[in-house]
Design a protein that fits this description.
Elements lengths: L3 E3 L14 H13 L3 E4 L3 E4 L2 E3 L4 E4 L4 E4 L8 E6 L2 E6 L3 E4 L5 E3 L3 E3 L3 H16 L15 E4 L2 E6 L2 E3 L6 E4 L2 E6 L2 E3 L13 E4 L2 E6 L2 E3 L3 E6 L6 H4 L3 E7 L2 E2 L4 E5 L5 E13 L5 E5 L5 E14 L3 E7 L15 E16 L1 E5 L7 E14 L22 E3 L5 E8 L2 E2 L6
Parallel strand pairs: 1-2, 2-5, 3-6, 4-9, 5-10, 6-11, 9-12, 10-13, 11-14, 12-15, 13-16, 14-17, 15-18, 16-19, 17-20, 18-21, 19-22, 20-23, 21-24, 22-25, 23-25, 24-26, 25-27, 26-28, 27-29, 28-30, 29-31, 30-32, 31-33
Antiparallel strand pairs: 7-8, 33-34
């Protein structure tokens, strides 16, 4: 067929360490001309950054792998979106800029080959901690696995993502994106996959994430949208997000709003399952950002062996830059959390922590059952969480948080709004 472009026909050689970046570029250029399909088949192909175009399809067949280069030199540094602001940062392994109708699919794998980047990150971080020196994520440049920037009508379907050097999928300033049936795996044991968010939805609209399976050593799905005192003025809202029928294992948060998020509205999370040490409903409140989170629903979530059901509190992490002094305004409106069954949890968690001073309107907890495990609360792998702010069998609610609870039971006892 004249609309199928096999990368081997453009000089790509599998199972070798030589870079196939140029072969990918040639195949992509040819496919883009006719809105055709680039086929990756026949083995493992090492490559640096590749750039997809409008109307084309990247299809990775079962058993085939796009393997990212282990050298940062193969990911050009450009002015891009990083942790809520623009700055110089390496491009991703797979990129799409200002594209429309692009598809990434197949039953194959994109592997970030990230272990060298993780080791460098942890070594530099440990040195900084030991010597009481400043350290942030910016200090170790690492490529994302997939970056979708200012795009429309994008489909990412059925592929497997693993070993990303940094975030797995970053959607920024894009609309009408569907992520369907993918799996994401980043290790949380051995050399941990630093900053390995599975899906980051950043200043986007009309995004669906469904039928996915995610295990990672950071937030699983993260709703972002800018940080700093002017974030609500210069960023598009992150809105009209649907997360459904997904399964999660280990992570720092099943669905997290923050740490860089200002305007978030119309988020619907339903019919999801968690089995593993993970926080389920996670909001990261920033002191340096005006935050407006509204019309957010969690409905039909089943959890086994999790960490906290609620982790809604101030975000404080030594790796994150602070952009303003003092605590700026946060408002939660029309947040509904209902039909939750959470078993063998470390703790029900906290809503507001001990420092929340914002405004809550129409916060409803309804039909929630929590049972706690016999072991005590732990803090490993979950930076930014104030473990001291919770107790094992209590849901602690900050006095500033006004909520309504209907049929909420913790270890068989009806929940009463116990103030933190």
């Amino acid at each position: 067929m004249n609309d199928i472009f096999d990368i081997r026909d453009y000089g790509a050689a599998p199972e070798q360490t030589a870079m196939n970046t140029e072969a990918f570029r040639k195949a992509i250029d040819a496919a883009a001309e006719v809105h055709g399909t680039v086929i990756v088949t026949g083995g493992c192909y090492h490559t640096g950054a590749i750039f997809l175009k409008s109307g084309m399809r990247l299809h990775i067949e079962r058993g085939s792998v796009i393997m990212g280069s282990a050298s940062i030199a193969d990911y050009p540094v450009r002015n891009t979106r990083f942790e809520g602001r623009a700055c110089p940062w390496p491009v991703a392994l797979v990129n799409a800029d200002d594209a429309d109708g692009t598809v990434i699919d197949g039953e194959g794998c994109i592997d970030g080959n990230g272990i060298g980047f993780w080791k460098l990150f942890w070594d530099k971080r440990s040195y900084a901690v030991e010597h009481s020196e400043p350290f942030s994520n910016r200090d170790v440049m690492r490529p994302r696995l997939i970056f979708i920037n200012s795009c429309r009508n994008i489909l990412i379907k059925d592929i497997s993502l693993q070993n990303s050097a940094f975030w797995n999928i970053h959607l920024y300033n894009s609309e009408s994106v569907c992520i369907d049936g993918i799996s994401v795996c980043s290790p949380h044991e051995g050399v941990r996959a630093a900053s390995s968010d599975a899906v980051d939805i950043d200043a986007c609209s009309a995004v669906t994430v469904r039928n996915c399976n995610i295990i990672t050593d950071d937030d699983c799905i993260c709703i972002k949208g800018g940080k700093g005192p002017d974030a609500h003025l210069i960023n598009h809202p992150t809105e009209n997000i649907c997360i459904e029928n997904c399964s999660f294992g280990f992570g720092h948060g099943m669905v997290t709003i923050g740490s860089e998020a200002s305007l978030v509205r119309n988020v619907y999370v339903h019919n999801c399952r968690v089995d593993g040490r993970n926080n389920i409903i996670r909001f990261k409140f920033r002191d340096d950002t005006r935050q407006f989170f509204e019309n957010i629903v969690f409905d039909g979530i089943t959890v086994h062996n999790g960490r906290w059901l609620f982790d809604m509190q101030r975000w404080d992490n030594r790796q994150d830059e602070i952009l303003a002094d003092g605590q700026l305004f946060t408002k939660l409106s029309n947040v509904i959390i209902r039909n939750i069954e959470a078993y063998n949890m470390e703790s029900p968690g906290t809503i507001g922590g001990r420092t929340f001073t914002g405004i809550t309107e129409n916060l409803l907890l309804e039909h929630i059952t929590v049972t706690t495990a016999p072991d005590v609360c732990g803090t490993e792998h979950s930076e930014g969480i104030d473990c001291a702010s919770v107790e094992k069998c209590r849901l602690l609610v900050n006095p500033a948080v006004q909520l309504k609870a209907v049929d909420v039971k913790i270890d068989g006892m009806e929940f009463k709004n116990t103030l933190a």
